[in-house]
Each structure stands twice: as structure tokens, then as C-alpha cells.
Give the backbone structure.
Amino acid sequence: MIKPIIRKTKLEKGVVDLATGEILHESTTVNVVDQDLVIVHSDEYVIIDSSALQYILQNFSPVDYGRILKMADMTNGAYNILYHDRKVPHTDTTLMTELNYTRNKYADFMKRLYRKSVISYILTVKDGKEFKYIMLNPNLARKRKTIDKNCLTYFDELGTKKGI
């Protein structure tokens, strides 16, 4: 969706309202539509940090880079968990299929991502059943502006002196 940018502007002394012909007060504020700029909005966007992206480019192959970007589009929620079709959290099996990896190549890839703080895991038990959720580092990519602050404790900041 595209919508125009509207800015509030305070009027200078002696401005005339063309519709009524009256002289407007100095303190009057009017909405002015900027003809050169628009706001582009989408419900399906990914926010990617450019310094973290440079970190990925320097530390991973082009094929890995493509798969990491694909994973960025799978994130959802306050913990940046990877989801399958935006409905169900990915398991190792579903993510391996989605990324088109064999079991051994997938294990090696995920181990490298984990060691470089690109992904992390949350393990939990619900109703006696164990669940493992895969999270992508929100400092790299996310689909929302707000992230649970506890999520950040699992990751280093990628692409910064503190995170390298």
C-alpha cells in the first residue's frame, strides 16, 4: 500500500486561505501533502540490519547467504522463531526440507549458524512433550520492530566490534 506523506506546517504572517479569502493567523498549522515522497507499507516485510548482513557475507558462502535470507523471511513473533507457513514453528525436519538440505549438510549448516550466533534454540516441555524452537538473531533480521528483550540474551550483535 502506498500513501502520501502529510506534514504539519506553521504558517507565516499574511497567508491567505484561497477557499475563503481570509487572512490566517501566524500560529495556524496546516497539513501539506508532500508531492515527491510517499510511504510504502506492507504487511509482509523483513527488516535486515546492513552491518549484520556484511558480517554474514564475510563469514558464509553465497549459498549459505541465500539460505539465511530465506530463513529471515520465516521469522515470526517476539522471539523471532522460524515458522513454517506462518502457522507452525519449524522443526529440524521441516526446516531441512524447506532449505533443501540432506541431514548431514543441514546439521553442519545449523552448527555453523549456532557457533556464529546467527541462530539459537529454545528448549521447553509442555504437557510432558519436549519442544525445540529455532530462533534467528533479531540483530540480523526480523519482521517486527519489537522483540522480547530476553530473546536478545541468546545472541551476540552481528557486525559490531562487540559482536565479532
About this structure: The chain has two domains: 2-40, 47-154.
